[in-house]
Amino acid sequence: MHVRLLLSPANLQRPLRALWQEPNLLRVAVAGACFGIGQGVWFTFLVSHLVVHRGLSLAAAGALFALMQVVSTVGRPLLGWLADRAGAGRVLRITCIGSGLATLALAAVSPTWPAWGVLLLVLLGGCTVSSWNGVQGAQAVYYARPGAVAEAATGGLLLIMLANVVGPVLFGLMASLGGFPLGFAVAALLTLAGWWPLRRLP
Fold it and tell me: Do the Cβ atoms of 27 and 166 come closer than 8 Å?
């Protein structure tokens, strides 16, 4: 009974309706979905890409993936600290550009890339692709209407989770047509599209 209530159309519509009622909240949520596409693709395909197209061992590629996650544990509070001082909108826009460019660079990774280049790219990914969630979530709560904080936060998370699923699926489709580079290039463009709603964020 509780599961049926949780997954009922009315219960799922309420958070999404809360996004439409506040323009700035909707902008932050759409940007989060764009970020989520790139994040889902990195989390799903980074290791495979480094093994297949850079020639790393599975252990080395896994270590780089773990390093990216470790960097994000520092990157998230760091971006929060910067957002408090420079403005969350500005930090999200810069993070959007960094995440998109990092994903675009990942499309170009090949066996000719030096080890330090791959390492720097993974560090950049940890600071951008993996670290935006805290600032984005805080902004969603900030723009929520009084009494609708839970619905606003849930609506934003629904879009992000959907993007985390759709991103890898779309990547797989693009990779089947033009290989991993095309998949990462499309993911980069969709991530950079998050700048458009953020440009009008105060």
Answer: no
